[in-house]
User: Which sequence fits this backbone?
């Protein structure tokens, strides 16, 4: 019904405005994330080359604001041995943009932390905070709408299954989200988001997500700060988690950037305390031509439980994409 209404609207607008027909065009999507890493101290046993993720897809613009996109995500899964790689359908969507309105349907990117991920811009080095600590999924099956009211104000809404793109819909609950992006001063952004994920399972609680992000981007540098709060993690009552992420990046001549980031995750009670940690990253990024980035960096994972030791690791991350 949604697709039929969308197609009818597009047809009506095209006929009413007698718009000039745009030439269809498409592009391939290819991104590969890999690294070499080695541990120090208690982490000495971990090391070697790793292929973290590979995106393969195609995007096709039909004209009049209508576009289709399909992307495969080949990566790790918690359901199989870490040495294996599994292919998932990451995006299978249709979108339509007219004026200040954008509508999307299908297996779409979620809006929970998409803005923060793009602002951070180094997904191949480390996921953004909410993605890294499983506050939500980066893609899901459903519909979304975004509207730009003014140059300084954008709003978006989304309704999806709430179980991510790696699982079929098996529960009756849905995930609802609302977001607002403010740009009150040039290049200074404020992002507010609230979401409700219905459990759909008897005995499980609904999960809510609240997040605020503040970031400033200049030609020479970028800084960002994010705070996130999630109630009833995995549907467990009072298993609340929260945390923050801070990062800064300085751009030097000759396509070189220096970056630093600090994440801190903590739980309301002992139900998730084993996962509580602080993570610090310090490194540099080198752009080699248009399609290749490499980033040597050093990481410290400071665990908040006394059962295991802290982890110190050196990484050489690489992204190839076009």
Assistant:
């Amino acid at each position: 019904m949604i697709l039929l209404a969308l197609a009818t609207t597009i047809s009506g607008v095209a006929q009413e405005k007698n718009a000039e027909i745009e030439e269809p065009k498409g592009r391939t999507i290819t991104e590969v994330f890999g690294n070499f890493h080695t541990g120090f101290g208690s982490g000495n046993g971990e090391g070697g080359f790793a292929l973290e993720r590979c995106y393969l897809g195609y995007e096709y613009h039909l004209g009049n604001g209508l576009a289709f996109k399909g992307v495969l995500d080949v990566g790790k899964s918690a359901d199989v041995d870490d040495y294996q790689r599994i292919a998932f359908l990451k995006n299978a969507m249709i979108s339509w943009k007219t004026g200040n309105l954008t509508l999307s349907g299908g297996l779409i990117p979620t809006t929970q932390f998409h803005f923060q991920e793009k602002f951070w811009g180094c997904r191949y080095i480390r996921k953004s905070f909410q993605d890294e600590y499983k506050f939500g999924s980066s893609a899901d099956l459903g519909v979304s709408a975004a509207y730009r009211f003014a140059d300084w104000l954008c709003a978006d809404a989304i309704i999806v299954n709430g179980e991510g793109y790696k699982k079929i819909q098996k529960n009756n609950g849905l995930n609802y989200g609302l977001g607002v992006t403010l740009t009150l001063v040039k290049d200074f952004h404020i992002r507010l988001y609230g979401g409700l994920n219905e459990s759909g399972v008897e005995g499980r609680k609904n999960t809510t997500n609240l997040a605020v992000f503040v970031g400033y981007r200049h030609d020479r540098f970028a800084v960002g700060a994010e705070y996130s709060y999630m109630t009833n993690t995995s549907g467990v009552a009072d298993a609340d988690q929260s945390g923050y992420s801070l990062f800064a990046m300085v751009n030097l001549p000759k396509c070189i950037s220096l970056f630093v980031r600090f994440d801190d995750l903590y739980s309301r009670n002992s139900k998730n305390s084993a996962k509580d940690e602080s993570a610090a990253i310090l490194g540099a990024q080198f752009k080699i031509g248009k399609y290749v980035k490499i980033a040597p960096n050093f990481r410290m994972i400071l665990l908040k439980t006394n059962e295991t030791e802290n982890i110190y690791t050196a990484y050489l991350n690489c992204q190839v994409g076009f």
